[in-house]
Amino acid sequence: MFECVTYNRMSFDRGKTTITLINGQCFVWNSKQARFLREELRIVGTLCGSLPRAPMQNTHLGLPLQLMPEEVTLLLEKGLAEVVENTEDVITEEMKLEYKNKEKKSYKRQVELYTRERQEEIKRKLPQIIAGKKAKRNKVLDERRKNGEIIDDSEFEKEIEMTVEDVGIPTLQEASMLMEIPLACDPSTTTPVLVKWTYPKSDKEVLRYRVFRDLWDKGHYLTSGSKFGGDFIAYPGDPSRFHSLFIVVCKPHSASISGIELITMGRLGTNVKKTIVLSSVDENDKLCYTSLQWTGIS
Question: Is-above-0.85 flag for pTM?
Answer without folding.
Answer: no
